[in-house]
Design goal:
Chain lengths: 430, 566
C-alpha cells in the first residue's frame, strides 16, 4: 500500500490541497481529509474503457485514432460548432480548446454561463472587491453566506477558510467569528449561523438595497418588513457589518440565479463597496466546479473574455445571452457540439438538450454521464487529480497544480485535444 | 546551426559605445558572432536604424491582476481585436490586451524582453502560465515582498540574514527574478482597510516602519548577489505633496553595490507631486530630478502618462481604492494573504483635466531633467500611465521641443503655471533614446552578463531594425517619422530568428523565462526551517508542498544562479 500526501481534490472550487490517498494495486482504495463528495470522486467507478461511437443507434467500440478522426470530421463539417464545458478539466487543455475554436470559427463557452455568469456581468459593470481565502481565514470576524449552502455543496469551506479555521488575528476563531446566513430556506448552513436571514424567494435585491440604505443613514425609508425580513433584523445586520474589523461575503447561485440575476450580484458588490468606507469587506463567489474559475482565467488571457466567446467573425466576440451555449442551442443555431468535462444533459433546459441530441455530439469525459446517452461519440480520458495532472484555479483565483496519483493508459484531456487540434490543422492545411 | 547576416546596419549600441556606425552583424545559432560564411539568410539594413532589442523593465502584462483587468473589461477587449492570420493567433484588448496581443504589439515595436512588474509569489504559477502564451519575448517577473509576513517578522527581529534566506526561498519557489516592494507596509495595513502615509509611519501589527523594510530589503537583496536591485514603488503614490515622501526615501537609500544601482525606483512621475490638495497640485519633478542627479546609486523609470483611456493596476490596493473614490467607475481589489494586495480601476487621462495635464508634463520633465539617461528609463508603467503602444509618441516628445510645445498648447490653460516643462529646451538624442529604451534596462536589471542589451560577439541576437534613416531625419522637426518609425520595425529578430516583419509576426517565437536561484547556507535554507514550515502550513490556505512553481511551467528557461553571502 502506498500513501500519498498533499494531493488536490478535483471536485469543487475549494480545491482542498491536503488530501491523503492510499493506493493499492493501481487503484485508490481510501482517502483522508476529503469530504464525502471528494471521496466519491477519488473512488469513482464506471469509467469508460475505450472510445465509443454510436453507429445506427448502437454503441460500438472504436480506437482512439478512429475517435479523433470522427471528432475532427464532425466539427469541421459544421457551420456553427460549439465547444462547451471545460470546468472539469485542467487549464492546459482549455488552452488547446481556445486554439481549436480559433480555426473552427465556433463558439467556446464554459459552464459559467449557467452558474456565475451573472456574477461576471455584474463584475464587468462595477468591479470586484475580493481577496484570497487565506486572507479571510486569518482576519475575518464576520462571514456572510448568501444564497449558498457550503455544508452541502462546499463541505470543507467552513473548516478550511472561514468559521472553523484557525486564523492569525483571531484568538479563538470559532467564538470570535460571527456567521450570517441569508437564504430562502433554513439550510444546514443556516442552522449553524449566528444570524439567519430568511428571505422570501426573489427578495434578495430588495434586502440588499435596504441594507445599503441603512448604511447610508436612510433607515427612515425602510418599511417594517422587506421581503419577509424585519426591519429590526436588517438594522442589526447592517450594524454587524459596519462594526466588524473584516467582513467576507460569499454568495452562490441562490443569488445569481434568483429573480434579478446579475442585478442582485451588482447590488451585493455595491453593498460591499459601501462597507469599505466603514471597515474592510470583501466578496467571493462560491464557484462550483473545481476549475470553472480556471476556465474563466484561461479564456480571458487567450481571448479577452471569460466565457461565451464567439469566433465566427474571426475576431473574439462576446455577448452573453447571444453567444452563450444555452442561447446558441435554444435558437437551434448550433449544428455540432463538443462537450469537454461537463454534463449539460443533466443541467440544461429541455429544448437545449433536445438540440444537443439532434446534432453531432462528441463527449470527452472519463465517465458515462447523462450526456453520454444523447452523444454520438465519447472519448474517455484520464481524470485530472487521479491519472492526469494540470493547473486549476481555486474560487479565489489561486492557481494550483493538480497532481496525479498514478499513471494509466488513458490520454489526458490535453493529449486528446491536441491530437484533434493537430488533425484539424492538417486537414485544413494550416 | 542557422546563420544570418545583417548588412549595412546603422547601429547604435550604447553599451559598446557605438554611436551610429554602419556595420554588418553576423548571427549563428541565436548568438551574435564575429562573422558567418555563406549565411542562410541575409538582411540588407541599409539606411535603417539598428538597435539591440528593446527591453521593458517595468510593465504589467501577465498574471492574476492583469488578467482580472481583462476579465472585468469587455469594453477594453472590444477596443482592439484582430483575427487569426498566418502564424498569428487572434488578439483582443487595448490597454490590457490578451497575452498574444501584448506579445505581437511589443514585437512590432522591436521589444524582445519584458519584465512583469509585480507578481505575488502565491499566484506566480498564473504569471508563468501567461508567459507561456507571450511567445515573442523573454520574460522575467518581479516578486512582491512588501507585506510578506515572514519577511516583516525577520525585519522586526533585526535578522537581515534570515530575511535574505526568506527572499531566496520565495524567489526560487515563485521562479521570480527581482525583489519588488509596492507601498511597503501599506499593503499589509490594507488587510484591515488602513494604509501608511510615508516611510516613518508604524505598520499595524508589526513593530516596524516602511523605511526599515526598504533599507533591510536592500541589504538582504545584496547579500543574495541578485542581478537586479530592490525595485521600489514608493509609499503614498498619487497624492498631492507626495514628493517629500519620495525625497525622504531617496535620502535613506544606502549605496552598497558598485556594479549597479542599489535601488530601482519605479514610475516616479506618480511620486513627484507638489501641493497640499488637488487644488494647488503641481509638479515637483525638478526637486526629484535634482535628488536623483545627486545619487548615482538610484535608477528611476518615468511612469509617463499619455492621454486617453487606460486601466490602472497595481499591488497598491489602498491607492486603487482612493483612486476609485475620485473616479467612481468600477473597482476591483484582490488582497493576497500574508503577502500583498492589488487593485484595478479603468481611467481616462484628459488633456483638459488640469491634474492629468500636470501628470503628463511631470513624466517628460523627469526624463529631461535627470542628466544621465542611464539612470532614467522610459516607461509608462504599462498600462497605468498609458498602454505601451504609446512609447513611440513618448520618444518623439522627448526628442522634439517643437512637438512638446505643440501638444502643450492643447492642454488645460493653467498647466503652464504648475509645471516647468515649457522652459526646458533639452531634446534627447538618438543615443539617449537608445539608452533609455534598452541599454539602461539591461544594465539596471543586471542582464548584460546574460548577453542582453548589446550587439557584440557573444550577445543574444535580439535585434530591432527600424525603418528610420537617421542621417536624413531631424527628430526635432520630423517627429511624425519618429513615431511611425519606432511603432513598427522593418525586422524584429529574437535569438537570431526574424519574428516580426513590418508588423506581421512570422512564427511562434522562442520565449525564455529568466529566474533567480540564490544558493544560501543550510542555516538559512527555509525549506528546512521548522518555524517557517510550521507558520506556512498554519496560516497560508495552501500547503507549503504545493506552493513552489515547478520547472514544467517554464519550458525553456534561464536559471540565474547566485552565491549568497549567508
Amino acid at each position: 500500500m502506498q500513501e500519498i500526501k498533499d494531493m488536490i481534490c478535483p471536485f469543487c472550487g475549494c480545491l482542498c490541497d491536503d488530501i491523503t490517498l492510499e493506493i493499492e494495486a493501481g487503484k485508490i482504495v481510501s482517502t483522508d481529509n476529503c469530504c464525502t463528495i471528494g471521496n466519491a470522486k477519488f473512488l469513482g467507478k464506471n469509467r469508460l474503457k475505450n472510445p465509443i461511437k454510436k453507429i445506427d443507434g448502437t454503441w460500438t467500440d472504436i480506437t482512439y485514432e478512429e475517435a479523433v478522426d470522427t471528432a475532427v470530421e464532425m466539427l469541421l463539417d459544421a457551420d456553427r460548432p460549439l465547444l462547451f464545458g471545460w470546468s472539469g478539466t485542467h487549464g492546459e487543455a482549455q488552452c488547446v480548446g481556445v486554439h481549436m475554436n480559433e480555426i473552427l470559427g465556433g463558439v467556446i463557452d464554459n459552464t459559467t454561463s449557467v452558474c456565475h455568469g451573472p456574477s461576471i456581468l455584474a463584475i464587468q459593470e462595477v468591479g470586484h472587491p475580493g481577496c484570497t481565502l487565506g486572507q479571510v481565514k486569518n482576519r475575518a470576524d464576520l462571514i456572510i453566506y448568501w444564497g449558498c449552502n457550503p455544508i452541502e455543496a462546499h463541505p470543507r469551506h467552513m473548516s478550511r477558510y472561514t468559521t472553523y479555521a484557525d486564523g492569525y488575528f483571531l484568538d479563538n476563531a470559532f467564538r470570535n467569528r460571527k456567521v450570517i446566513v441569508v437564504d430562502v430556506r433554513e439550510t444546514e448552513t443556516a442552522k449553524v449561523a449566528d444570524e439567519f436571514i430568511r428571505i422570501k424567494p426573489g427578495g434578495d435585491y430588495a434586502v440588499l438595497s435596504s441594507l445599503r440604505a441603512i448604511l447610508r443613514g436612510k433607515s427612515d425609508m425602510i418599511p417594517d418588513s422587506v421581503a419577509g425580513v424585519s426591519k429590526t433584523q436588517l438594522m442589526q445586520v447592517a450594524d454587524m457589518c459596519k462594526t466588524c474589523s473584516f467582513g467576507a461575503l460569499f454568495f452562490g447561485v441562490g443569488l445569481t440565479m434568483a429573480k434579478g440575476k446579475y442585478k442582485n450580484v451588482r447590488n451585493a458588490i455595491e453593498f460591499v463597496d459601501d462597507l469599505n468606507r466603514h471597515t474592510k469587506f470583501t466578496l467571493t463567489p462560491m464557484r462550483g466546479h473545481w476549475n470553472v474559475y480556471g476556465a474563466n482565467e484561461v479564456m480571458a488571457w487567450m481571448t479577452g473574455y471569460p466565457y461565451a466567446v464567439d469566433f465566427c467573425r474571426g475576431v473574439a466576440f462576446y455577448n452573453p445571452g447571444e453567444t452563450t451555449a444555452i442561447d446558441i442551442l435554444a435558437r437551434k443555431e448550433c449544428d455540432a457540439c463538443m462537450i469537454v468535462a461537463s454534463d449539460p444533459a443533466a443541467h440544461f433546459p429541455r429544448a437545449c438538450v433536445e438540440q444537443l441530441r439532434d446534432i453531432p455530439l462528441v463527449v470527452i469525459d472519463p465517465f458515462e454521464t447523462m450526456t453520454t446517452t444523447i452523444a454520438d461519440l465519447q472519448i474517455p480520458v484520464a481524470v485530472t487529480g487521479i491519472d492526469a495532472e494540470g493547473t486549476a484555479y481555486r474560487m479565489d483565483g489561486i492557481p494550483i497544480k493538480v497532481k496525479k496519483a498514478m499513471d494509466s493508459d488513458y490520454p489526458s484531456d490535453t493529449e486528446i485535444l491536441t491530437r484533434i487540434y493537430n488533425k484539424m490543422l492538417e486537414v485544413k492545411g494550416l | 546551426m542557422k546563420t544570418l547576416l545583417i548588412k549595412n546596419a546603422f547601429v547604435i549600441d550604447p553599451i559598446q559605445h557605438i554611436s551610429g556606425e554602419t556595420m554588418d552583424i553576423a548571427v549563428r545559432n541565436g548568438k551574435i558572432v564575429d562573422d558567418v560564411k555563406n549565411p542562410d539568410e541575409v538582411i540588407d539594413a541599409q539606411g535603417m536604424l539598428t538597435l539591440p532589442g528593446g527591453i521593458d523593465s517595468h510593465t504589467h502584462i501577465c498574471g492574476t491582476k492583469v488578467n482580472f483587468g481583462r476579465y472585468m473589461s469587455p469594453e477594453d477587449m472590444r477596443a482592439g481585436r484582430t483575427s487569426r492570420k498566418g502564424d498569428m493567433h487572434a488578439t483582443a484588448g487595448y490597454s490590457v490586451p490578451t497575452t498574444y496581443g501584448n506579445s505581437y504589439r511589443y514585437s512590432r515595436m522591436g521589444y524582445t524582453t519584458l519584465l512583469e512588474g509585480a507578481m505575488a509569489p502565491m499566484e506566480a504559477r498564473h504569471t508563468h502560465e501567461e508567459f507561456r502564451y507571450t511567445p515573442m519575448q523573454d520574460c522575467l517577473a518581479n516578486t512582491l515582498f512588501d507585506g510578506n509576513w515572514f519577511a516583516l517578522q525577520a525585519i522586526q527581529d533585526g535578522d537581515t540574514k534570515r530575511l535574505a534566506g526568506i527572499l531566496a526561498w520565495y524567489l526560487s519557489a515563485a521562479k521570480g527574478f527581482g525583489v519588488k516592494l509596492t507601498n511597503p507596509g501599506g499593503t499589509e495595513a490594507w488587510g484591515f482597510g488602513k494604509d501608511v502615509s510615508c516611510i516613518n509611519d508604524p505598520i499595524p501589527n508589526f513593530d516596524i516602519t516602511p523605511l526599515e523594510i526598504i533599507v533591510k530589503m536592500i541589504e538582504a537583496n545584496e547579500m543574495l548577489n541578485l542581478p537586479h536591485s530592490v525595485h521600489l514603488h514608493c509609499n503614498n503614490l498619487g497624492k498631492p505633496g507626495n514628493y517629500m515622501c519620495t525625497l525622504d526615501t531617496y535620502d535613506a537609500i544606502p549605496d552598497i553595490n558598485d556594479k549597479r544601482q542599489s535601488l530601482y525606483s519605479t514610475h516616479v512621475q506618480f511620486h513627484s507631486y507638489g501641493g497640499s490638495s488637488w487644488n494647488d497640485f503641481c509638479s515637483k519633478a525638478e526637486d526629484i530630478a535634482r535628488s536623483v542627479n545627486d545619487k548615482p546609486h538610484i535608477v528611476i523609470d518615468t511612469g509617463q502618462v499619455m492621454f486617453g483611456k487606460t486601466t490602472t493596476m497595481t499591488a497598491d490596493g489602498p491607492m486603487e481604492f482612493n483612486l476609485y473614490r475620485l473616479y467612481h467607475n468600477k473597482w476591483s481589489n484582490h488582497d493576497i494573504e500574508m503577502e500583498t494586495g492589488s487593485g484595478i480601476i479603468p481611467v481616462v487621462y484628459r488633456k483638459k483635466n488640469l491634474v492629468n495635464a500636470i501628470m503628463w508634463a511631470i513624466g517628460l520633465e523627469l526624463a529631461l531633467l535627470v542628466d544621465d539617461p542611464w539612470r532614467c528609463i522610459l516607461a509608462t508603467d504599462n498600462p497605468n500611465g498609458a498602454p505601451f503602444v504609446k512609447y513611440p509618441e513618448v520618444m518623439a516628445l522627448l526628442m522634439s521641443k517643437e512637438y512638446r510645445d505643440k501638444e502643450f498648447e492643447t492642454l488645460h490653460k493653467s498647466t503652464g503655471r504648475r509645471v516647468a516643462l515649457p522652459a526646458i529646451e533639452r531634446e534627447l538624442t538618438w543615443d539617449e533614446i537608445a539608452v533609455m529604451t534598452r541599454s539602461a534596462q539591461a544594465r539596471a536589471l543586471g542582464l548584460i552578463d546574460y548577453g542582453k542589451g548589446y550587439l557584440s560577439e557573444g550577445a543574444e541576437a535580439d535585434i530591432a531594425i527600424y525603418p528610420i534613416d537617421v542621417d536624413s531625419t531631424d527628430p526635432a522637426r520630423d517627429y511624425e517619422r519618429i513615431i511611425n518609425g519606432f511603432s513598427t520595425t522593418e525586422y524584429t529578430i529574437k535569438r537570431g530568428e526574424v519574428v516580426c516583419r513590418r508588423g506581421t509576426c512570422t512564427l511562434e517565437g522562442n520565449h525564455s523565462t529568466y529566474w533567480v536561484k540564490p544558493h544560501v547556507s543550510p542555516a538559512y535554507d527555509m525549506s528546512k526551517d521548522a518555524a517557517f514550515i510550521d507558520g506556512f502550513n498554519r496560516y497560508y490556505s495552501i500547503r507549503r508542498a504545493n506552493y513552489p512553481v515547478g520547472e514544467e511551467y517554464l519550458g525553456r528557461n534561464v536559471c540565474m544562479e547566485t552565491e549568497a553571502s549567508i
